Amino acid sequence: MNCEEHSFNFVVEGPEIEELVSAVFHTILFHRTLPALDFKDGSVSYNSYLGTRDVDCENFPLTYVCVNSDQLIDRVIGPIHSFGDSLRADVSSGGSACGSISLEFAIQRKGTWGLGSEPSVWERWTINLRIKAVGPGERDERRQELADQLHEKIMHILVLVNSPNSHMPSLGSSQMETEHIIEFSIADISPYRFNIHYNTNTSQVRGVGFGTRRLLKHV
Questions:
Q1: Bridge partners for 55 per DSSP
Q2: What is the pLDDT of residues 164-213, one digit of tens each?
Q3: Is residue 144 classed exposed, middle or buried when 0-12, 13-18 and 19+ CB atoms within 10 A define those classes?
Q4: Under a CB-based contact definition with an 8 Å cutoff, are residues 153 and 35 in contact?
Q5: What is the number of alpha carbons within 13 Å of residue 135 lying toward its C-beta?
Q6: What span, in angstroms and rounded, lies between the C-alpha atoms of 4 and 138?
Q7: Which segments cross the bilayer (predicted)?
Q8: Nearest to 19 by CA among 53, 64, 51
Q9: 66-102 pLDDT, tens per residue?
Q10: In angstroms, what CA-CA distances link 153 with 9, 23, 89, 115?
Q11: Is the Cβ–Cβ distance between 20 and 145 less than 8 Å?
């Protein structure tokens, strides 16, 4: 399976990093997460529903929707916080720094020659960020512009994830046949296996994680 690549560019202030990345990644994960799966007699079905949670951003006027799972949220926020801390530490005396963070979905294929499993990435979403300080008099206007830009990108994500050309790995007929595709360790939901990694001036870190829905309210 070929890897689909998508990338987005933003200019932000330091405190905005985590909220912006979380809004984008949780929008994607909402479409890459299934309810808990039930395997029976060679077929698969859902034995629950996918709950949602509204998240109000504090640094810019936007509300997004994520899967209502504390376990999933905790797995996502860890590497995002580390990325934000690393990027802010890289800020130069001129108040600028650059970095990127990616959300990857992969199949854990069996390795060869006894080397263990090998991830085969089938979809990658990358956010490229540049930190730039702005004056207090410009902040409100710039944050509204950032919210507008983020709203536009999220709407574009909805088009991409619901496109007929968007292909996801097929599920197996049993959990054993599906566990290389789906993460089964999170209660009540079944996200496709994902990984988050980031690059900044001083860090390169991999943090392993594992139809159109209502995703966003633009304030």
A1: 64
A2: 888 889 888 888 889 899 999 999 999 999 999 999 876 666 554 543 33
A3: middle
A4: no
A5: 2
A6: 37
A7: none
A8: 64
A9: 999 999 999 999 999 999 999 998 887 566 799 999 9
A10: 10, 10, 27, 39
A11: no
